[in-house]
Amino acid sequence: MDSIRACQQALQTGQVSAVELTQGYLERLQQREPQVHSFLTVLPERALARAAAVDQRRAAGETLGPLAGIPIAIKDNLCMEGVKTTCGSRMLADWVSPYTATAVANLERAGAVVLGKTNLDEFAMGSSTENSAFGPTYNPWQRHRVPGGSSGGSAAAVAARQCVAALGSDTGGSIRQPAAFCGTVGLKPTYGLISRYGLVAFASSLDQVGPLANSVEDVALLLQVLAGPDRQDATSLQVDIPDYGAAVAPEHTESLKGKRVGIVRETFGEGLDPEVAALVQGAIAQLQELGAAVQEISCPRFRYGLPTYYILAPSEASANLARYDGVKYGYRAPAPNLLGMYEQTREGGFGPEVKRRIAIGTYVLSSGYYDAYYLKAQKVRALIREDFDRAFAQVDVLVCPTSPVTAFALGSKTEDPLSMYLTDLMTIPVNLAGLPGLSLPCGFDRQGLPVGLQLIANVLQEATLLQVARAYERSTPWHERQPTGWV
Ligand code: GLN
């Protein structure tokens, strides 16, 4: 029972109660937790109480929400009232949120049962979940490897079947890259489609909340519940939400006739693992087999995405993280005077990667450098968006690898931030342009590690994205494989 639909059926037919389902998942969660460490907080009592409420409402004949009784997990940078939100940081190690993020509230309103909060790179800065102040998460496929990041806890929890689905956040690839490394499906929606209210800010013009699950169908169901305008988020889009379930329905996903697919030529260059390249090429051949018209598309400015991102994201981070000063909330270092308190709080509360980002951001925003770096990066960002506009005048969906490599060994890139940053080469341009991107499994390399296929669509074309992804998924066996060897 690893899919939302399977759970729903079992719940509706009375084969299992919501309490039993939650209990079963909590047991597996705890059993596998020492091997993956995907959770920072587990909420057994809260979850069981919610599940009991679902059972009661069902018994009373009430109409239940579309996710009634479905066990899910939440990345620990999304607030939940009365629950700790640590952001994987010492700075917020004991901080309890006074309110609930809209995305979480939407899931709970639909009946979802939150099992706990998942591990992440500190403040979502990273690509391996090794930057968590509370220790890394291990890849469920091979425990000496990273799960990707920053939503590594969410991706690992979904892959390890510790929950049915999870929420992540994606600023430069943090949903899609871990989804690829863990062999799950992950969607970063159009900027503004899901409210960011209650998502602890990293780089506000890039951050998006999104779902991870074991199938495209589940991701579509979750998006249906998550998407929509929110008065609490000024960047939330005032748009009508289409029927994503229809987009992935059998009658729309048998064939891809009439769909135009573009291969992003620039992503097949230097640095791409040949095995990843071969599997992604195989996936493209499969899309063609399904009837899609495939052509190569050039996005020449794609390669400037990474340097642009590493100017803009740290700039926004340096501003957003100024609030952690020991005065308002969170960690406070003991010190004899105010300035010392500020300094020691920030020195002791943040880990090295966060400090690096704050330093870079502060530097590029300083007077004299602002025009040369920040302003220029904003201009390049506009050019990258132009490349996409041109591409989407010709095709409906773009394809490329999600990451140039598969899951690497823990510790193998920690000394070299640049090589770590490179794993997000193919996901970052999508955030810079505010577009929806989805990663789904497209095979396994010779070492048995999952490889992710990234599909990108134009603004608000999630339905198309899901449709193409589901057509591919239906015709391939990859999503059925599960990590094994649990003790
Ligand atoms: N890995 C990228 C970074 O370190 C992206 C992180 C994210 O999407 N939150 O910034």
Overall morphology: globular
Count of distinct strands: 11
Category by helix and strand content: alpha/beta
Overall pLDDT score: 97
Number of structural domains: 1
- Low confidence ranges: none
Strand content: 5-15%
| Spatial strand sequence of the major β-sheet | 1-3-2-4-6-5-10-11-9-7-8
- Report on the biggest sheet: 11 strands, mixed
The CATH architecture assignment turns out to be Alpha-Beta Complex
**The CATH topology, please?**
Amidase signature (AS) enzymes
Identify the CATH homologous superfamily: Amidase signature (AS) domain
H/E topology pattern: HHEHEHEHEHEEHHEHEHHHHEHHEEH
Q: CATH class, please?
A: Alpha Beta
- The first-to-last residue Cα distance is 20 Å
Helix content: 25-40%
- Rg from C-alpha positions? 21 Å
| Number of helical segments with 4 or more residues | 16
Bound molecules: glutamine
Summed up:
The chain contains 16 helices and eleven strands. By secondary structure, the protein is an alpha/beta fold. Glutamine is lined by residues 124-127, 150, 170-174, 202, 313, 424.
Explained architecture:
The chain has 487 residues and is an alpha/beta fold. Helix content is 38%, strand content 13%. The protein has 16 helices and eleven strands. It has an eleven-stranded mixed sheet with strand order 1-3-2-4-6-5-10-11-9-7-8, sandwiched between helices. Strand 10 and strand 11 form a beta hairpin. Helix 5 packs parallel to helix 6, helix 10 packs across helix 12 and helix 10 packs across helix 13. The protein is globular, with a radius of gyration of 21 Å. Glutamine binds next to loops. The site of glutamine has 13 residues, from loops.
